[in-house]
Amino acid sequence: MKKYSYILLISKMIKQTLFILSFFLGSSLFAQKKEKIYRTSGDTTQNFYLTLLPEKSAIGLLVIIPGFGTTPDEVLQETKLPELASKNGYVVVIPLLLDYE
């Protein structure tokens, strides 16, 4: 029984290691050039927009207006459109349209 429990433990450790490695490798493979531009110096909570720049020269501009209460980062999680547009040569701009005051 001891030998079997060691095999299970090693198997579990290998699975956990592979999961962690796949997470970090997967996120770095799909990384793109993202930039947050803040319009008010010193304020990192509002009045900014997120840009995704293509690797080569731009062929166009895509402005994505988020739905009510949605941040630019949430737009990137909800749809692959910004990523696809950036890969195909478009500059993508996603503004934050919330005012917390």
Structure report:
The protein has 101 residues and is α+β, with helices and mostly antiparallel strands. The protein folds into two domains: 31 residues; 69 residues, no CATH class. It is 42% helix and 22% strand. About 6% of the residues have low confidence.
Concise account of the structure shown:
With 101 residues, the chain is α+β, with helices and mostly antiparallel strands. It has three helices and four strands, in the order H-E-E-E-H-H-E.
Topology:
Layout: H1 2-29, E1 33-38, E2 48-53, E3 60-63, H2 72-78, H3 81-87, E4 90-95
Parallel strand pairs: 3-4
Antiparallel strand pairs: 1-2, 2-4
For the biggest sheet, the summary is: 4 strands, mixed
Helix residue percentage = 40-55%
Total number of domains:
2
Roughly how many Å apart are the termini?
64 Å
Give the number of helices: 3
Written as H for each helix and E for each strand, in order along the chain, the element string is: HEEEHHE
Structural class by sheet pairing and helices: alpha+beta
The gyration radius over C-alpha positions equals 20 Å
Question: Quaternary arrangement of the chains shown?
Answer: single chain
| Average pLDDT score | 77
Q: Trace the largest sheet across and list its strands.
A: 1-2-4-3
Strand content: 15-25%
Number of beta strands? 4
Indicate the low-confidence ranges by residue numbers. Answer: 26-31
Can you tell me the overall shape? Answer: elongated
Q: What key phrases describe this protein's structure?
A:
101 residues, alpha+beta, single chain, 3 helices
